[in-house]
Amino acid sequence: MATANVFPMDDNVALEREVHTIGRRLFEAFPTSAGGPLHMLDERAMELASRDLELRAALFRFVDVVPACRSLDDLAQHLVGFVGELEARPGPLEAAMRIADTRGGRAALGAAAAAGVRHMAHRFIVGSDARDAEKVLRELWERSVATSVDLLGEAAVTPTEADRYAERCHQTLEELTELYARWPARPRLEADTVGVLPRANLSVKISALTPLLRPHAPDRGRADAGERLRPLLRRARELGAHLHIDMESLDSREAVLELVLDLLGAEEFVRGPSSGLVLQAYLRDSPETLDQVLGWADEHQRDSPLTVRVVKGAYWDHEIVEARQHGWPAPVFEDKSDSDRNFEHLTARLLDARPAVRVAIASHNLRSVAHAIACDHLLGGDGSDLELQVLRGLGDDLQDALAAQGHRVRTYCPVGDLVSGMAYLVRRLLENTAKDSFLTEHSRGVPVEQLLEAP
Ligand SMILES: Cc1cc2nc3c(=O)[nH]c(=O)nc-3n(C[C@H](O)[C@H](O)[C@H](O)COP(=O)(O)OP(=O)(O)OC[C@H]3O[C@@H](n4cnc5c(N)ncnc54)[C@H](O)[C@@H]3O)c2cc1C
């Protein structure tokens, strides 16, 4: 795996020094009482789950079935069923299982479990829709934090579901534009050296815009999703809003990439809207994807350069299982430090490619974030052309530390109900309890110098 080759060797020493200085400064701005971002998931179960793989699987199976349960009794029976399969049960769960012997006990256990899951979901999901989320969005904006609102609801199964999702997107774009127009100026969030950055920002998933997204017939899915994405881009342009296209699992990557680049490359979208896509650093071939995106950006001079959000990737477990089932080589790195190193490599290349693209670094990992800020400095930037992004509920401390130090930070805020948010919630819980994730290491008290070591 190549390291960032944008800088000559001597500058790599300066880069490391800068990463440590920036990282320590950010770290010191985190709340001192916190045991790391995991303290926000203060559910004992999550802490236990991060130590015990079997328990983790049982709890996630339970979380996944919660929306389908019809009664508290039903909930309790599912919990008892999943946990009952474990060979060793931690004390608190053993006690909970015992009360499930009676009908009254099951009702109490079901109520406690439902409240726990709802409580957890509310950390990540800011409201049922944009209007319901107004208070959170406004508070963030007033504290100099921009947002990207994400409508929960994944993988449409019927055209009606896809139409409904597109309709919700239209409505949300309008609501966000109206809400944000009322709030005070925040110059750092509203412009970079290229021009205006829209206040209203919506993230969408292509799999929710078509039921036809299939790896063996990408053209049909692409065409069908295009029918719903094109009017959305037009509406975003009219409203002066930003539309961001999330990236999902690998089987839809080519279709999503081609669709977005095709549409945004069309004459009618040269003047806008502001828009962007996502690059996943855990994919071994992401450097080639970046070549493709940068080649496209060079050929298409848009008024608003394409924003590239670089992430590590949220479907790691899925990609590994899928590859194993088919006997394919894994398309994702299998060693976390390879993903981290590649993330830095892509970050440096993207920052060096400005102003052909706008760059958004989306990570909760102090090292990855400090590395991006350090690269920006070494390339002569002052932070105006670098956006840092976090997920609501996971990156809150980092978000506040970044905003307090004058960086442009955008928080990804999902809206929707618990049923449509379940897949999202499970992905966040998987991340939170993964043994080698930055958040887990931080919450276990790994010293800052170690957290900042080069991957
Ligand atoms: C604003 C925002 C938007 C996002 N949008 C998207 C999106 O559109 N699509 C998407 O897929 N994800 C998206 N994500 C999620 C992102 O991909 C990561 O899952 C999440 O941010 C965790 O990465 P990290 O750098 O914060 O933490 P870290 O703890 O540093 O990294 C965890 C990540 O490392 C990778 N990893 C874990 N184990 C291994 C291993 N054994 N070998 C190799 N790699 C491993 C995985 O990608 C895992 O998520 C988004 C994140 C943010 C903050």
Protein described:
The structure is a single chain. This protein is α/β, with parallel strands linked by helices and 455 residues long. It has 2 domains: 311 residues, TIM Barrel (Alpha-Beta Barrel), CATH 3.20.20.220; 86 residues, no CATH class. The chain is built from 19 helices and 8 strands. An 8-stranded parallel barrel has the order 1-2-3-4-5-6-7-8, surrounded by 8 helices. Helix 10 links the parallel strand 2 and strand 3. Helix 6 packs across helix 17. The longest helix is centred in the middle third of the chain and has 23 residues. The N and C termini lie close together (11 Å). About 2% of the residues have low confidence. It binds flavin-adenine dinucleotide.
Descriptors:
TIM Barrel, 455 residues, binds flavin-adenine dinucleotide, globular, eight-stranded parallel barrel, alpha/beta, 2 domains, 19 helices
Q: Helix share of residues?
A: 40-55%
The CATH topology of the largest domain comes to: TIM Barrel
Ions, cofactors and other ligands present here are: flavin-adenine dinucleotide
Q: Would you report the number of β strands?
A: 8
- What is the CATH class name of the largest domain? Alpha Beta
Number of helices, counting only DSSP H or I runs of 4 residues or more: 19
Mean pLDDT: 89
Low-pLDDT segments: 33-42
The largest beta-sheet arranges its strands as 1-2-3-4-5-6-7-8
Shape: globular
Strand content: 5-15%
Main pleated-sheet profile = 8 strands, parallel, barrel
Describe what is shown at a glance.
This protein folds into 2 domains: 9-30 and 128-416, TIM Barrel (Alpha-Beta Barrel); 37-122, no CATH class. With 455 residues, the chain is of the alpha/beta class.
